[in-house]
Design brief:
With about 190 residues, this protein is mostly helical. The protein has nine helices and no strands. This is Integrase.
Length: about 190
């Protein structure tokens, strides 16, 4: 028996539709001309609330610690992310999540939860942007059929999963300890 896309990719059709509908709705409410593929404020708030609680650092001190990171942003930009005036890129968000995990300011389950939500949300945004770009004069998300939203979501989820897998393999090949662990687990990371 052949598996359905939802079984293969781990996301049910109703979830894919809800993710897509939420992103399209948010875009139309924003009145922006171009679709922004950025981290929503609720995920940024969730991350930094968790960091502040666990680290017990004052907000200013946390801003300074993040500003010192080579990949991160200035304290002023960080404040704009938290307030919602500016939206963070997905790459910066991922790096901050892993940095917070490395500092032991968030738990492994919170990291997994954030990364999973971020991954699905990013795929939904990419899919929604593609659908909107195909329809230049679209005035409402209701003009897009549910099946089309779900199909596009699954296509992009499969592509994004392959991309993540390739990045992981390259990362393992560069890190000796990770390569040894992968070999001991019997994982195939050869070219």
């Amino acid at each position: 028996m052949q598996k359905t896309e939802s079984e293969t990719l781990g996301v049910e059709e109703y979830e894919a539709f809800e993710l897509m509908a939420r992103e399209l709705h948010a875009h139309f409410l924003s009145a922006r001309k171009n679709f922004a593929v950025r981290v929503p404020l609720n995920l940024v708030s969730y991350l930094f609330t968790g960091i502040l609680r666990k680290s017990r650092l004052p907000k200013i001190q946390l801003e300074c610690a993040i500003a010192e990171l080579e990949f991160a942003v200035e304290a002023r930009t960080f404040r704009r992310y938290i307030s919602g005036h500016t939206r963070m890129t997905w790459r910066t968000f991922q790096r901050l999540v892993f940095w917070a995990l490395g500092q032991q300011w968030i738990s492994a389950w919170m990291c997994r939860d954030l990364m999973s939500k971020a991954h699905l949300c990013e795929v939904a945004q990419i899919s929604a942007r593609e659908l909107l770009n195909e329809r230049k004069r679209l005035v409402s998300a209701t003009e897009i059929h549910r099946e089309e939203m779900v199909r596009r979501f699954y296509e992009n989820l499969a592509l994004k999963d392959l991309e993540r897998e390739e990045e992981a393999i390259l990362s393992i090949r560069r890190n000796d300890e990770a390569r040894e662990l992968a070999c001991s687990l019997g994982l195939d990371i050869a070219d």
